[in-house]
Amino acid sequence: MDKRSENIPNIIIRRLPIYYKHLKKLKNRAKEYISSEELAELTGFSSSLIRKDLSYFGNFGRKSYGYDIYCLLQELSIIMGFNHPKNLIIVGAGHLGQALVHNKGYEERGYKLKGVFDKNPKLIGLFLDDIKIRSVEEMCDFVKEEKIDIAALTVPKGVAQKTAELLIEAGVIGIWDFTEVALKVPNNILLEEQHINEGLCKLSCKINQNFN
Amino acid sequence: MDKRSENIPNIIIRRLPIYYKHLKKLKNRAKEYISSEELAELTGFSSSLIRKDLSYFGNFGRKSYGYDIYCLLQELSIIMGFNHPKNLIIVGAGHLGQALVHNKGYEERGYKLKGVFDKNPKLIGLFLDDIKIRSVEEMCDFVKEEKIDIAALTVPKGVAQKTAELLIEAGVIGIWDFTEVALKVPNNILLEEQHINEGLCKLSCKINQNFN
DNA sequence: ATTAGAAAGTTATTTTTTTAACAAAGTATT
DNA sequence: AATACTTTGTTAAAAAAATAACTTTCTAAT
């Protein structure tokens, strides 16, 4: 891989999954090449921007043909590190935590769901698919023993910060945060905030613009 | 409200919920004012950027004091249109749809959850909290009768596009999309994509940067 | 073989966004 | 009342990002 992949601008990182998503839809169409112009049509980004983004990582295109869809998907997978195996746990087995257990996107992106944790004795010991709900008491040891990289956090707000600290202490390098709290984490820890109510805010804001 | 709120740059809209979130945490602290410098500390944005963002909407600050936390929250609510009532339905009562029913963020942002819809006969008629799961057959009429503004979409990928089209046809003005599909919608329709696997992509991408 | 066309990759330009600097206004202190 | 201090709101400068334009390379058709 190109050495430039060491410090990819965030603005480009945000677009990579979008390219990936659209290309996947085309995987088994007749034509095996796609031009930047066509991809622009699909994604809403300009063709110029797309060529520039991709050329940041290497020369994946073929002059007068475009990009081989299969190869480009392959390259994007590598850039996004899907081939690098990552262990995941879910902390908090409430409605959202349970929904996350059933998410189908892990394997394709190199994630292995290793465990689910909760404090509620009524939940501990139950199975969601083939994943057992364990007590949060076991969480830290589990993180160390199973070399967990990422923890999805779906606990109540009140315990979010404390739980995050325990997880970091135990060795996770990233937190996929679903609580509606502004977590404070050291800057060597990756924090991906998935605060769904922010989506509601944005929608509300935009609706409002049309009425004022 | 300031007339400039008619076309707020997206980049600012994205930061508003973040200011809001951090200010809410401070609501009942002793000091009732906060400086842009302090808010910068909390949010990670520069104080300069914060002052500029806020001044886009009006003069909310007080020289040598800072911003009144309560008033600023109030102003942000107005800018984001939380005072404007919006009707919401959830389409798809699977794990994620059910988790969304239990989300606590609606009221505060001006949303009223009016209904949940699914195709599965085993689910239809059941209650989640006090919300009845209805058949998707009834969906379009319901949207018209109840003047639904926003639909949260948590249906399987295969029916995502078709369902979106039905909803738009019936009159929703925004879709809060949780499917992992690249939906195509007319450009007068608001589309807020909440594709959780994009979060996984970003985390994976960033982990990968440290290992190459 | 030559020529026209297509589309990537690159460079230059423009636009947007962020940061830095500063002036204005208010506060507190002597 | 005068002075020093804060912190906003604004203006200027810098940096980043996006677009447009251009060059190169490859393909295909005559």
TrEMBL record, chains A, B:
Amino-acid positions noted as binding NAD(+) in the UniProt annotation, renumbered to this chain: G92, A93, G94, H95, L96, G97
Keywords tagged on the record: Cytoplasm, DNA-binding, NAD, Repressor, Transcription, Transcription regulation
Example of a GO MF term: DNA-binding transcription factor activity
Location of the DNA-binding region in this protein: 18-57
Record-level GO cellular component terms: cytoplasm
Boundaries of every CoA-binding domain copy: 82-182
GO process terms (BP): negative regulation of DNA-templated transcription; response to redox state
Signal peptide (from-to): none
Main location: cytoplasm
Pfam families in UniProt: CoA_binding (PF02629), Put_DNA-bind_N (PF06971)
Superkingdom to which the source organism belongs: Bacteria
Record flagged with keyword Iron-sulfur: no
Keyword Transport part of the UniProt annotation: no
Subcellular location: Cytoplasm
Physiological role: Modulates transcription in response to changes in cellular NADH/NAD(+) redox state.
Binding partners and assembly: Homodimer.
Similarity section: Belongs to the transcriptional regulatory Rex family.
Full protein name: Redox-sensing transcriptional repressor Rex
